[in-house]
Amino acid sequence: MSDNENTNAVRSKMWREEPEPDNPFATRAAYIRGYDVYGEMLGNARWVDMLYMLFHSEAPTPAQADTLEALAIALANPGPRDASVHAAMCGGVCGSTAASSLMAALAVGAGQLAGGREVFLAMENWQACGTDLEAWQQRLMDPGTTPGSVWPAPEHPPGFDPHGVRTTTVVKQTLACLARYAAGTYLPWLNENLDAFEATAKAPLTLSGVAAIALADLGFSPEQGEMMHLLLRLPGAAAHALEQHPLGYKKFPFGIVELEGPELKGQS
Amino acid sequence: MNDTHEQSGPDFLQQHVGVLKSRMGAFYPGSHVVFRGHDLHVDLKDMSWPELYLFGITGRRFSPEQLTLINAIWVYTSYPDVRLWNNRVAALAGSSRSTGNLGVAAALAVSEATIYGRGIDLRAITFLINTLEKTTAGESLETAVRDELDEHRSIAGYGRPLINGDERNQHILALAKSLGLDHGPHLTLAFAVETFLFAGRWRMKMNYGGIAAALCADIGLSPQEHYQAMFPAFLAGMQPCFIEAAEKTEGTLYPLSCADICYEGVTYRSWHGAHPKAPSDMPTDSTPATPIDLP
To answer: Which of A42, A47, A257 has the most B C-beta neighbours within 10 Å, making it the best mutation to test the interface with B?
Structure first.
């Protein structure tokens, strides 16, 4: 039976497996883009080489691998103030399952405020505007909406902080570090033109904004960039969820609810 | 840097530290629970779950006929078929010996798809509400449909991934008729769109997402309310898929052999020397890989 006739087949341009001689369901060798993962890459390749090749047809250049690794460090822990980590801690603090804590982090970290969708939209903007400040001005003035989308209409320019006062030190440090690798054109340009760029949005750049630029420079599509941002922020969510478990809910913020309007309307 | 207005900035955030203002509700431990301004255990205690669910979404009450219809919209699309992609997630969780809660929660999450489920619900009801406004204002149906096709390349609520036509429609329509809820303007419009699309080159019939959106729009649900209301639509079909997979021998749902990966990529190439970062003196004890010949 050819692959085309096999209705059970999963098609892939990235992954191939060879079976053990005595078991068609056991893997003897696995290949990513033609490279032998366990026979040759293991012990020789970096984690970011593998990560990059899952999304690209070729291995990264040293500059690309270094950029991706630095970005992974910058994104690894959004910290307990971040909403996605907060969500993971809500799981951890009451003993929810590990996966549910990460699912919580993914759901919250998927959004348009510091999340995956924000990275997607920011990367679309970079694709459309590049380093043309006039184009940015036009696009940010009229971002457009998609009627019927499951995503709410954006409330701030993607990649910028609606509550920010000025560009934070960690954002500047990340941008400067990533720009030094010169893996693409956007990061070095932005590092030189940050003030003018931020003036177009009237808001400071965020870490997710830097991530979007770095991922665009690395050749990721907006869809791939969204996935990468979701993935790379999970380690911190996992660790903070576990950290809260032994502390318990009594040492975790609960807050006070102030009801707006009459407290009880009674039966209507 | 940021535009100064009262809805943003660190001072605005500071006002929200530790205090959560809500018009939806709160629980007072040992005392009572307020649910949208009502005492849950006194005022709302006799509500059915669907009624409370819809009240939570909308803050409005619905007639028994309307509740029967919405309940049926959920019931008629609860298919315990493990092949359906969202159900399969629940079942794979069962087969992989994960938990039922994780499997079903993930299955519900993936039900927000582009070609079915919540993605379609929102687009379908938005299209019908907007098109009714446009045609009422004098725009032709053809123009409204073509505009939607130009924007989305499809009309949400028409056509179907596996087959053109929908076994659920006749049943929900019969129920709507028996409840006197089949005369609304959105439902009339939805059928007019179907007639137009089927007669044209698109050959598309209305699917269940389309008819559900029309019925819910006629009940008065907004797009966002409809989107939230449809969340449990597939739920009752998911648990059976999880349970059955969990009862069977582990790992027997959709087993794929190595040969079932239909590889369409580049042939074998050596990592050693091919990558600038690979140390050339790194020993390898791997069995030489087998090159693959592709057509």
So the answer is: A257
Q: Which among B255, B262, B279 has CB closest to A11?
A: B262
Mutate to test the interface with A, among B89, B262, B264, B282 (most CBs of A within 10 A): B262
CB B161 within 8 A of CB B151: no
Q: Which two tokens stand for residue A147?
A: 């009627």
3-state SS, residue B126: helix
Partner B, chain A 23-52, Cβ-Cβ below 8 Å? 24-29, 31, 33-36, 38-41, 43-46, 49
Separation between Cα atoms, residue A207 and residue A210, nearest integer Å: 5
pLDDT digits (tens, 9 = 90+) for B10-63: 999 998 898 899 999 999 999 999 999 999 999 999 999 999 999 999 999 999
Q: What is the pLDDT of residues A118-174, one digit of tens each?
A: 999 999 999 999 999 999 999 998 877 777 889 999 999 999 999 999 999 999 999
CATH topology (fold) of B118-232: Cytochrome p450-Terp; domain 2 (1.10.230)
Cβ of A24 and B124 within 8 Å? no
- Identity (one letter) of the amino acid at A234? L
pTM for this prediction: 0.91
d(CA A220, CA A55): 7
User: How many beta-carbon contacts under 8 Å exist across A and B?
Assistant: 216
Report the b/e string of A112-138 with b at 16+ CB within 10 A: bbbbbbbbbbbbbbbeebeeeeeebee
The chain A residue lying nearest B117, using CA atoms, is A150
User: Domain locations in chain B?
Assistant: 21-61, 118-232
What burial letters (b/e) apply to B6-42, b meaning 16+ CB within 10 Å? eebbeeeeeeeeeeeeeeebeeeeeeeebbbbbbbee
Q: Rounded to an integer, what is the distance from CA A242 to the centroid of its chain?
A: 21
* Residue A231 C-alpha from the chain's centroid: 6
**Furthest-apart CA pair in chain A: how many Å?**
73
Which residue among A12, A28, A62 sits closest to B277, beta carbon to beta carbon? A62
What are the sequence ranges of the domains in chain A?
Answer: 15-45, 68-247
**Contacting residues of A for B42, CB less than 8 Å apart:** 267
Largest CA distance in chain B: 80
Residues forming beta bridges with residue B33, ordered by sequence position = B27
A141 touches chain B (CB under 8 A): no
Q: Which of B43, B119, B255 sits opposite A267 (nearest CB)?
A: B43
Tell me the CA distances in angstroms from B19 to A139, A256, B14, B31, B36, one per residue in order.
36, 5, 10, 20, 18
Test B261 with A17 for CB contact under 8 angstroms: yes
CA distance A194 to chain B (A): 13
Please tell me whether the interface predicted TM-score (ipTM) of this complex is above 0.95: no
